[in-house]
Description:
This protein has helices at about 1-15, 15-30, 45-165. It is an all-alpha fold. It is rod-shaped. The chain starts with a helix and ends in an 8-residue tail after the last helix.
Amino acid sequence: MEAEGMEEEGHSSQSELPDLQSTQQQQHQPLDLQSPTPVENIDVDKKVVDKLTEGFLSNYLPDLQNSKRALQELTQNQLILLDTLDQEVTKFRECNTLLDLNSLFTEAKVYQSKLVNIRKEMIMLHEKTTKLKKRALKLQQQKQKEALEKEQQREKELERERQLIAKPAKRT
């Protein structure tokens, strides 16, 4: 198919030589790009434009395709790097969370030991207050016993004094 195209191109290129020469002559004429008058349409053969386009594309298309592949590869590598970076950031956040958890556990241990000490003190104070209450109860019972004994002693003394008081004899 390309061979047929080449044959056709070969025949057309020979017949187009005068057109190419006239086109080249027209191109050699200086164009004033800054002139205020619009450029008139130049009559150019479509086959010449197609061949020039084909030549231009065959010249630059491979480089452009290589550049496109290289850019796609770079973009892919950037995406991979971004994913890796996100994973690393996540790992650092987890490490910071673990450090925070470790500090919380350390703090919890400190507070637990404080609570254990407070509990021991409360138990000790409870035992002391229980002993003091028992002692106070014993002292109170002892004072009541002493007061009762004193009262009984005083009653005995009063009774004795009454018995000692002389009684008038009864006349019979």
